[in-house]
Write a structure and sequence with these properties.
Strand order of the largest sheet: 3-2-1-4-8-6-9
Largest sheet: 7 strands, mixed
Oligomer: single chain
Structural class: alpha/beta
Number of helices: 12
Number of strands: 10
Amino acid sequence: MLSILIPTYNYNITRLVVDLHQQALDTYVDFEIIVIEDGSTLFVEDNKAVNDFEFCRHIILSENIGRSAVRNKLADEAKYGHLLFMDCDAEVCSEYFVAKYVSFCKEECVVIGGTAYDPNENDPQFSLRLTYGRKREARAATERSKNNFATFNFMISKSIFNQVRFDESIQGYGHEDMVFGHQLHQLGYEFIQIENPLIHKGLDDNETFLRKTKEATHNLFQLYQTGHYPYLAEESKLLHSFIRIYKPGLTPLCAWGFNQLQTVLERKLCSASPSLRLYDLYKLLFMCKSSRMK
């Protein structure tokens, strides 16, 4: 019936598994929970407790194989026809979380549950991640685009997954979900958006989030440059804006602007009330700089 799959890296997964395990038992359906440590060096001993639960497995990889490859491996390990993927830094916020997904297990489908953020979390060191998450990610099912896809919390039929799989050639941080989602649409699959979020708990502090932003922005440009993913220009507003700057030859000026403004922008983005307009500008200017890197 349902395989619950959790790729894990340096995170304590035990509470999440306890909650999911009890909910899955309460549904009275066949299920399994598989956790794969993707080269973790922290919490591995704690997470071995997963093996103590019925229908649960904890697999340890000695080396980090990457975000795409570990999800493909989880799918290969799964024995049931529907795959429920979630990130390790998630927290269950509804007693009916598993049951809502089980209700879709009689059909071939791709179901997106959504993302939420703890309303009581207001630590300023996470202000940028919280602002971005609450305004851009934590949307009700009715407000999400029908094309909106994210790997944080989704279920997919194994028969559909095996037609696409995650592209393991994508290295670095970010955008493997965009490619995966686009390929699903190319095959004609629609996403069912439901109100069944998980709370995103593993927040990056402001400096870390900016570093990951630059890594993801550079990765997006590199993917586009290969010529293998021409559709990214339509999928990504950032890339679309970059191309509008690139065509008239304005990227050198914008790259210079990033170097001049980087310190000021980062100080403002790390403030207690960061602006997402500034954040979008920061990414655009950095992409211009990234395009000129040799």
